[in-house]
Amino acid sequence: MAEYGGEQPLLSSVHGGCGRVLNGEDCDTEPIDGVADLAKEFLVESKKLWYLAGPAIFTSFCQYGLMTIIQIFAGHLGTIQLAAVSVENSIIAGFPYGLMFGLSSALETYCGQAFGANQFEMLGIYMQKSWVILNAMAFAAVPLFIFATPVLKLLGQTASISREAGKFALWMIPQQFAYAMMLPSTKFLQAQSKVMAIAVIAAVAFCLHGFFSWLLIGKLGWGLPAAAVVLNWSWWFIALAQFLYVISGTCGEAWPGFSWTAFEGLWKFLKISVACAVMMCLELWYIMALTLFAGYLEDAEISVDALSICNTFFMQNLVLLHMIISYTCSVRVSNELGSRHPRKARFSVVVSGVTSLLIGILFTLILVLSRKQYPAIFSNSSEVQQLVEKLTPLLGISVVFTNVQYTLSGVAIGAGWQAPVAYMSTVCYFIFGVPLGVLMAFKFKMGVQGIWCGMVIGL
């Protein structure tokens, strides 16, 4: 048991068996023979995929919809309010969230393989390790929120945006601790395919969030402080509801209760968590960097607003693809590897990739066809709406490109290969994507379109 909690969750140290999995051989799986057999197996794997992905996609839209609702109300308060919320969310809150999201992704490897190997009691121990690490990360991030205004000014944001975003950031400190509790419990439940419980909790939070946003911001006119209170409350509702579900006895042996064992081997667990964090949060840092550079352009408020609207739709689709590809692929791969079925793991990658490509194309067509309508949902400014319309084709290209990236990310997480992928992503995003985006935006006077072209190149 102690070996499985080490730096790498190697299957050879988990349990007995044929041992041939390390050579790529299955213990009990026959190869696919013929087109008919392929179609049958594709259908079977698709059912498994959608059993996981369906509720996960719904959960994703509900959770990311919390910020979308706040942005809609902030956009109708004014351009400076929308810019403040967008900058705080993408830069100040985005940095620690990216780290915490990545750190928690180690559970997809550990819990997924432990569940496949029937080491159920280890799932709860791993989740508690992750709670310790993420809460420490949340505490470490508090100064960033306290000094958000000078930090944003130092990064080159305008004084008005920095001031409003700084005020909003102070209100958003509790949200970080909600993330620290919610993310590990989410990974813990997903590894066991308990996705319906997560979806129900997210749906209730979304409905309550929409009502209180309308009441406090739209009806009573309490402005950005009310937006922060509602957003904090919604995330804490999700975190507490999932925690109560976990400890209620519904997870059986997977929740052994609180244990001091969670503090044993914490450093080894932290090392693979950091590798996960670097790999998973590079996407968020990439978007954060692009939003930051948009603040240097002429008409910074309009550029940031337009980019934030596109980022909202881009992130919604990224989450959709992440749920279908990275999450489902990592769960399927880790579960099958834990059960010593590498052929099934490989086949799930193929099914995930084909499915995600089709969904990416469909999502892009919807965006392009509605490019004259959807910007008005977020902003009353005609300049912002026109700029978003121009960015939509690039947004669609970005959506399609992500499918290959997230397929491979899911494989890496499920198999514990996070470090090599982190190196590759760093080069693609920050050696090619960001510098070329800045060059096109400022040197070739392409503005925010040049910044997004850099994003496409990086992808």
From TrEMBL:
Location(s) in or outside the cell: Membrane
CDD domains linked to this entry: MATE_eukaryotic
A Pfam short name: MatE
InterPro entries registered for this protein in UniProt: MATE_euk, MATE_fam
Regions that span the bilayer: 49-74, 131-156, 195-217, 229-249, 269-294, 306-327, 347-370, 421-442
Keyword field: Membrane, Transmembrane, Transmembrane helix
GO molecular function: antiporter activity; xenobiotic transmembrane transporter activity
GO annotations of cellular component type: membrane
GO biological process: xenobiotic detoxification by transmembrane export across the plasma membrane
Membrane topology: Multi-pass membrane protein
PANTHER family: MULTIDRUG RESISTANCE PROTEIN (PTHR11206)
Family according to the record: Belongs to the multi antimicrobial extrusion (MATE) (TC 2.A.66.1) family.
Name the UniProt record assigns to this protein: Protein DETOXIFICATION
Organism from which the protein derives: Handroanthus impetiginosus
Phylogenetic lineage: Eukaryota, Viridiplantae, Streptophyta, Embryophyta, Tracheophyta
